[in-house]
Amino acid sequence: MADSTPSVVAFQAPPNYICTSNIEYAFCAPKASGDYYIAIPKNYPAQQDITKIHSWFENLNAFPTFIPHTPPEFNASNNYNYRFYNVTSLLPLFIQNKNGTRDDVVGPNCFQTVLASSGYNSLWGRHVSPDEFKYYLKRDYIPVYCKKAKFGALIVYDTSSLMYDAGDHAAFHILGGIVFQKGGWENYYPYENTTIENAMNTLGSHWRPPPEDRFLNPTWPGANMKWVHVCYEKRHQSIERETSSTPQDRNWFLPLFQYYINRLKRVSNFTWSTFKQNRIDLLTIENMWKILSDFRDRIGNVNPTDVLLKIDDNIAESYLELDSLSWQYQAMVDTYYPIKTKWHLEDLYRERYVNFNEDFYEELRLYLKLLNAPKENWDKIIAKVESEIKKYDPVSLAGTGERIPYFSILQKAIAACQSTSCISEGASSYEFTEYGIVWNFLRQNWYYEGKEA
User: For a tag on the chain, would you pick the N or C end, based on fewer CB atoms within 10 A?
Assistant: First the structure.
């Protein structure tokens, strides 16, 4: 009978693998692409191997593959004292697909990597802002001692140890202190494995200074910082919390969030060669910024994460997704087609400020629907809005900070129909700000002293 506490057998890692070992197993992850292995000392009874591996990876839906002979890359003499299993299939699909690769697009970052690896599939392949990461971290995770971190723990790196702070970087803990990560949003950062202790140095080894700093500051800024890490694991059950949303959240913000999310997703996977002809018109981007700004005013800037946690999940998640995608879109603009001269800016405004295509009409029809404008009058309102917008020369706006007053034009087009009952009763009073709209009828129908009527 095997001793219940076998002695540790030294394990030798090959050059192309990162390995950690303890008394129960050695876990090896490829430095680049390749398979993942668990090696179990032979003085443990083999009949317990599968059960143990399933418990370590907390995955009963896939099975490790026993390797009858020591894999060639692990042919060091000491390693013959181990039984080897290929455990790649037990890892999250995101890691299986992404390990050892680089993205073609800019935007996906470390926060996307850890959450996509954790099963948040809707985040796969896009930027995740620190605010969005913090929201999920605070809602779905609890802090744990890093020495007790299990499979799936999130490791957050910062220069301080504040709880539930997004920090500067995050990595996904696989097993035995080995983590999976990507660096920043730039597409030269690879998806790779490293150790908890070496994560920031590994990230720094890929860092490239901005073009304007490549001679002045060639060293990674984090090289001399003292990094600390905080570990989190997923809650076993969701926290009980009361959430609520106003009718304005549900009937105004949510459909607009979803519309602009879909618009941004249509271009989020384009590279520099296809982005220019598919970029979104500036007028639509300005409208989107206005909606985001209005919602930020609604949640305030004091503990916004706590406010979002009190709002219905689908609304909070949609807002955060749109906020992240809007950041990614701007990063794509700045990376693929930076504005270097006034001529470039004027050319952009000439070609891409507004185009009267199906995207333009789709966006306008959504606003008319949300404003309860009678459908039989949409054609007249749309024609009026288009006619008024065409009176502006977009090039004259380039670099001025001014914009076509889309919402004011929309208000006047709708108001022109009042005398012929174009607007239904109770939805005919409007109050406009300089860059957007606050509709009195929204307040009348959706609010009463900040509460639902």
Answer: N
Q: Which position has the token pair 């073609």?
A: 104
Q: How far is residue 450's CA from residue 432's CA, in Å, rounded to a whole number? A: 19
| Domain layout of the chain by residue ranges | 17-90, 94-234, 247-446
Dist CA 43 CA 253 (whole Å):
62
Q: What is the pLDDT of residues 74-93, one digit of tens each?
A: 887 778 889 999 999 999 99
Query: How many other C-beta atoms can be found within 10 angstroms of the C-beta atom of residue 167?
Result: 23
Q: How far apart are CA 289 and CA 260, in angstroms?
A: 10
* Per-position b or e across 348-373, b if 16+ CB within 10 A of its CB: bbeebbbeeeeebeebbeebbebbbb
The alpha carbon torsion through 97, 101, 106, 112 (nearest 10 deg) reads 40
Do residues 228 and 157 lie in contact, with contact meaning Cβ atoms separated by under 8 Å?
A: yes
Q: Do 227 and 137 touch, CB atoms closer than 8 A? A: no
pTM of the model: 0.89
CA distances from 405 to 83, 97, 159, 369, 422 (A): 70, 46, 44, 20, 22
Residue 170: closest CA among 227, 106, 105: 227
- AA letter at 28: C
List pLDDT tens digits, range 130-163: 999 999 999 999 999 999 899 999 999 999 888 9
67: tokens are: 């390797």
